[in-house]
Design a protein that fits this description.
CATH superfamily of the largest domain: Aspartate carbamoyltransferase regulatory subunit, N-terminal domain
CATH topology of the largest domain: Alpha-Beta Plaits
Bound molecules: cytidine-5'-triphosphate, zinc ion
Order of helices and strands: HEHEEHEEEEEE
Number of helices: 3
Number of domains: 2
Amino acid sequence: MSDDKKKKLKLKVSAIKEGTVIDHIPAQNLFKVISILGLDKIEHQITFGTNLESERLGSKAIIKVTDKFFEDDEINKIALIAPHAKLNIIRDYEVVEKKVVEIPKEIIGIVKCFNPKCITNNETITTRFKVVDSSPIALRCSYCEKHTVGEQIKMV
Ligand code: CTP
Ligand code: ZN
């Protein structure tokens, strides 16, 4: 089979002319990614596919946002739930740049503190953590100093 044909078969979601393709999102986190990036509130055209086959992830999701180019700190917010996500910047149908997400130094308002007694779990306060380790990810709460690590990490 020709490479061109292979590529067309792979293309389960139509190509876009200008914008950003976020690929390699774990399928189970697609809607969290949409919510963290605020894609449920913008007026750009968005197409997505989920439960697509992926050699690396088993099952992946992909999001295509027309005419939208994200700032690095915006996109890095998804690093906790889509650490292997790859961004493809599309200009005139061509991939002109590929970016990977990086775990930010500080996480504000995305994750719950694991400590039930923490003030953020008892009053309406935005959570805040310093990232103190990356593998597994360890977060230190800026309010109670307790660590929330790996599997303990839950979204607010
Ligand atoms: N893509 C798109 N619209 C375009 C060009 C590309 O939606 N005009 C999408 C492709 O469908 C693919 C992603 O952008 O999901 C990256 O494209 P490309 O680099 O051509 O694919 P791969 O080589 O498979 O990417 P990688 O292996 O880096 O994930
Ligand atoms: Zn806390």
